[in-house]
Please model this.
Amino acid sequence: MAAGQSPYAVVLSCIDSRVPPEVVFDAGLGDLLVVRTAAHTVDRLVTAAVQFGPQALHARLVVVLGHQRCGAISAAARALRERETLPGELPSIVAAVEPVYTGSGGEVDAMVRAHTVRTVASLRADALLSGKATTVVGAYYSLDTGLVRRVA
Model:
């Protein structure tokens, strides 16, 4: 492991402490390149981190992992519903998930799934991730059951 790494997948997931991708996917050291942000939101730096896996390390799979009862999406939904401005940089999370708020009726788990699908579409459209060598998929982790199901 010290000499190098060759992860088979990049996992973009939430920062939630209940959802560590290495545990969720029963992966060992060096198996996954993990990128974690609140509500698996994406900006230029996050996209660059995701691109690094396929470009530099030849990881062939990118998984966007949403999860049940996401606290960041719950806070964003509440802020949108109550027209409240969250402190600090938290409005960035609200802005990132706002496009899925109305279509999901403000229901958190529906928002998580819709945001996952939206993030997958964005990454699939990325020039460095859209080739035949990289597969981008979305998944949803249930805290209740421990199961991961594909959503995109």
About this structure: The mean pLDDT is 96. The chain has one domain: 9-150. The longest strand covers residues 61-67. Residues 108-124 form the longest helix (17 residues).
